[in-house]
Write a structure and sequence with these properties.
With 148 residues, the chain is α/β, with parallel strands linked by helices. The chain has 4 helices and 7 strands. α2 (90-99) crosses α3 (107-117).
């Protein structure tokens, strides 16, 4: 990797993602978070200027800190674990669900969150205003108010 003149060699780099897809559409993804690992240094302002938040894939410590900050400031937020799902165990994912207002996952992430937390999607949905599960070509499933 070439370093630009005047660049601090030890500073965090931009996140990078490399996706290899075979002829059957199977994918292998390699991801380096780079500067995302420093996101915990940023704080969610609690001055009332933010009315809704999104907690999406980021550095592990940043996601934990920002969920706590949203919850303390009583800012409703969407929890979208995405590719960061593998960074967390069941208790941590369960805490995110407890703190979140809405949860959105794809079908694969939905299975993972069930396995890791030991709770069904219906049980997870009962803890939030709505749970959205995208299912590719089959559309989406929305769990809300005890209905699917």
């Amino acid at each position: 990797m070439r370093v630009r003149p005047g660049t601090d060699v030890d500073s965090p780099r931009s996140p990078r993602c490399y996706i290899t897809t075979d002829l059957d559409a199977n994918q292998i993804t390699a991801f380096h978070p780079g500067a995302m690992n420093e996101s915990w240094r940023l704080e969610v302002p609690a001055d009332g200027g933010i009315t809704i938040g999104v907690l999406a894939p980021d550095g592990r410590d940043g996601m934990i800190a920002h969920a706590d900050q949203f919850a303390r400031a009583k800012i409703p937020f969407i929890f979208d674990p995405g590719q960061a799902m593998t960074l967390f165990g069941g208790p941590e994912l369960g805490k995110f669900v407890e703190q979140a207002t809405w949860v959105t996952v794809n079908d694969y992430e939905g299975k993972l969150i069930e396995e890791k937390t030991g709770h069904s999607l219906e049980a997870i949905a009962a803890k939030v205003r709505a749970l959205f599960v995208t299912r590719g070509a089959e559309g989406s499933t929305i769990y809300m108010g005890g209905q699917r």
